[in-house]
Amino acid sequence: MPYIIMKTMYTFIFRIIHAIQWTVNGRINVIGKENIPKNQQFILVAPHRTWWDPLWFAIVLLPQKFIFMGKKELFKNKIFAKGLDMVGVFSVDRQNPGPSAIKIPVKELKDGTRNFMIFPSGSRHSNKAKAGAVVIAKMSGKKFCQSFTKDH
After folding, report:
1. If we measure between CA atoms, which residue out of 71, 32, 67, 47 comes closest to residue 142?
2. Which domain holds residue 64?
3. Is the whole-model pTM more than 0.85?
């Protein structure tokens, strides 16, 4: 799919999700958004507590765009997989990650325009960080931007 179409679809899809989120839950309160780099790529590092986390971060950080790592099980449904692809999610086998888990974000961070969002624990059910985020940062030369969510 041509990049310009993916870029437009990314914004369109996340604006729709934002409208639905706002209708159901109201406004998302963001503290510290001014600390997010505006003119340079970065790696957003955050805890992964709910399956909504990547959506919330992507919504509140628009117009910035991200690529995301997603477990291969998310790609079983062809229609859902196409939607994930359109917003920059790439598939990773968590049991056998392979070199593409590092190469894809490094290439985008070096040659592309999107940032990379990663949840270092690799799961909503773990607090143990994996080393991939550090490897990606070192290979791409990009800095981390730490973030977190707070339950109400």
Report:
1. 67
2. 3-146
3. no
